[in-house]
Specification:
The protein is an alpha/beta fold. The chain is built from 12 helices and 17 strands. The longest helix has 18 residues.
């Protein structure tokens, strides 16, 4: 297929609805992690859009989010994306229907569309390698009418991520290897993750999929009929006055299921492209620590305000994140300390994943103002 012809049918879909509970108290319902300035002036969402330059024009970027307020924030942060390309879901029903909604709208515009899927809260270091992998995946998805997964070469035995196993090599395109996708594996235990790393043919599942729009909708119909039924109702009302009302009702009846469970893990003849472009899903505060610059004592100091100051005495390898306060610590190591205007989090770095449990506890205790 000619490169120019592919570009005519290439679209980006950004799913921008995560809550980022493991980054509480900085990530809240009103300002989830994708809209937080965790790494400089640009939010994670803005960084996601920025690295699409060279892949698609702004008018070929579509965004699905989970509230009207988030949609307003998206318009504010990326005014070059047309408002008609931004859709907000009436209720949260996980990623299968979110990806389905965006793909459905794009398919209505272009029946031959190839959709590159992205999550709004990921980081990528080497954008040139990233774009090369995405273009290769798009070509395979179009020509083979299937799904292509971008697998990240693991740098350590991460037990908090899903994995994808590469099968036989299919072909090479411009130096990029394309493999048959053998299977998906849910988050393994630590020993299994270590075996995966040693084997060399398992990759982290980044969740960045590329698919033909017509293929994905057909796959939903075959493997997730309830989700497809809800989308079919939405599609029939698209462009009509009753669209939002129909979508609200359809979402109420739709199952809460991830795109992996609904489609990705079930499709046949899918492909895998291994990539190594410095990817990170910014999953918890320990990840923020690893990515942030450190002082001579290994402390990662992240100041959001203008007046804040950190003073440490015999303090090593801590993450300290704050606004305009003075934070003083003595004799502590390997801690996460996050100080916001109304809440403070202190925990060991090794317990960073448990922050989600803490947020659930806050919900149980009806501490709504802190969520």
């Amino acid at each position: 297929m000619a490169e120019g012809n592919l570009n005519n049918h290439l679209y980006a879909l950004i799913i921008c609805g995560g809550g980022g509970t493991r980054l509480w108290p900085r990530s809240r319902n009103k300002t989830p992690k994708q809209f937080s300035h965790l790494f400089g002036r640009e939010t994670l969402y803005q960084k996601t859009v920025k690295r699409l330059r060279g892949l698609v024009a702004p008018d070929k970027i579509y965004v699905v989010t989970t509230s009207k307020e988030y949609a307003s924030e998206i318009k504010k942060e990326t005014p070059n994306i047309p408002s008609k390309n931004i859709f907000w879901e009436p209720t949260r029903r996980n990623t299968a229907i979110a990806c389905g909604l965006g793909t459905l709208i794009i398919h209505k515009k272009d029946p031959q569309a190839v959709v590159m899927n992205f999550w709004a809260d990921h980081l990528v270091k080497n954008e040139e390698v990233f774009r090369k992998a995405e273009k290769t995946a798009a070509r395979i998805a179009f020509e083979e009418k299937t799904l292509v997964a971008i697998g990240i070469k693991p740098t350590w035995a991460h037990a908090g991520l899903g994995y994808i196993k590469a099968g036989d090599i299919f072909k090479k395109i411009n130096g990029v290897s394309v493999y048959k996708l053998e299977k998906f594996v849910e988050k393994p235990d630590q020993k299994t993750a270590e075996k995966f790393l040693e084997s060399g043919n398992y990759y982290w599942n980044s969740g960045m999929y590329v698919w033909r729009a017509d293929f994905f909708l057909k796959a939903l119909k075959n493997y997730a009929p309830e989700t497809f039924s809800a989308l079919e109702k939405i599609g029939n009302a698209f462009g009509k006055k009753e669209f939002l009302k129909v979508m609200r009702v359809a979402y109420e009846d739709a199952p809460d299921v991830s795109v992996d469970v609904a489609v990705s893990e079930k499709v046949k003849n899918a492909f895998l492209i291994p990539a190594d472009f410095g990817w990170n899903d910014v999953g918890d505060w320990s990840v923020i620590y690893e990515l942030a610059p450190k002082d001579k004592n290994g402390n990662a100091i992240i100041k959001f305000g203008k007046k804040g100051e950190f003073i440490g005495l015999e303090a090593k390898n801590n993450l300290v994140q704050f606004d305009d306060q003075l934070i003083a610590v003595i004799g502590v190591e390997d801690l996460i300390i996050v100080d916001t205007t109304d809440a403070v989090l202190i925990c060991r770095k090794k317990d960073a994943q448990k922050v989600k449990e803490l947020v659930n506890l806050l919900k149980e205790k009806n501490k709504v103002k802190y969520l």
